[in-house]
Amino acid sequence: MWIRVGIALTLIGGQSSAQSVPVVANQRPSWTTATQWKLSAKPILDIGTADGAPEHEFGLISGVLRLDDGGLAVADMQANQIRFFDKTGQFRKAVGRRGSGPGEWTQLARLSRFRGDTILGAGFSGPYELFSQGGDYVRRLQLENRTRLTIVGFRSDGSLVAYNSGINESPGRTGEWTDSTEYFEYSADGVRTRSYGHKPFLRMTAIDGGSSGPTFGATSTSAVIGELFYHNFTDDFAIDVYDRSGKLVRRIQRAWTPARVTNEDIDKHRRAYVYALNDVGSPSDPETHRQRQRRFEQLKFSRSFPAHGRMIADRVGNLWVQEYRRPTDQPLPARFFELADLPIKWDVFNSQGRWLGQVTTPGKFFVMDIGADYIAGTSRDDLDVPHARVYGLQKPLCRPPECR
Description:
Layout: E1 2-12, E2 15-26, E3 38-39, E4 45-47, E5 61-66, E6 72-76, E7 81-85, E8 91-95, E9 110-113, E10 118-122, E11 128-132, E12 137-141, E13 149-154, E14 160-164, E15 176-186, E16 192-207, E17 210-212, E18 220-225, E19 228-233, E20 238-242, E21 248-254, H1 263-274, H2 286-296, E22 311-313, E23 319-322, E24 344-349, E25 355-361, E26 365-370, E27 374-380, E28 386-394
Parallel strand pairs: 2-21
Antiparallel strand pairs: 1-2, 3-28, 4-28, 5-6, 6-7, 7-8, 9-10, 10-11, 11-12, 13-14, 14-15, 15-16, 16-17, 18-19, 19-20, 20-21, 22-23, 23-24, 24-25, 26-27, 27-28
């Protein structure tokens, strides 16, 4: 690992200014075989069944959080409920239902920590309902100008970073371009306190008089850790880090070689898409195959794969960056989350931007929450039954700040 200083031309607060930006350029990870982090071979907590107690049966898990006492909060989008379990997996309480009143959603799409012992259940663009970790209703978080707003993450004081997730269709435009969107800070009371400006958001291409993101195209991904806001447009492995005022304070780079999208990749994607399983995990019918094939023929493809996938902040200040995986021809269910059979690798960076190494998570497991000694998320078993699972995270010879 080495650090160099470059000159970056940035647009902050609407003004262009040259500033010296420390660049943490990582050529190789710092972990050795002896210090490599890894997951437990089996989950340390596993909740989910097809024929047991109804509280343990889930329709579509959209959020999993490990609570301070070792229990779990699990969001079920299908039931529009948050279910609370103790550290042994015993059911405690369920809150929420379908509706528009306090503590209700039309589609419960995410579960997040707010501040202190308060958690947030939210639809795609609200409402934002707050509960204690014991399941008691607190209040609704009202955000100013929240139309098409997506929350990136919360700070410890309850303030948050969010962006406008609306896509400009750009009718009549030709070729390929990069669309941008504006990022904002909100207070814990929902007041918009500042703009972080427009940042690259989505690679777009003209199609049938409108526009769409090309398959395998670069996208925006971001995270909030402490007072810092992390953002990258994934056409390169260069993650920008901003302080609370919006000043660019660091850029994290990792050695990376662009991977070209080949005809074989496209054909594998076609087979996985056309023959994808239906919502209950069964083979789809021939007419559905024909419809998907017609839609597939309208797709356009990026020339290369993104540098990486999504980013997640763990609870001790590390940044986890998902490795972008090439397509397989395995038919996938039409799920809200990707639950492919193959394991997924994550690059882990500490609070100074140093590349620590890689952690591999199991196949059919979607990561939703990472702590000092665990990784929690949703999974499906061989019978396609949804589970909330927690794996132990083992860190031999680990020292602060990564292991607080």
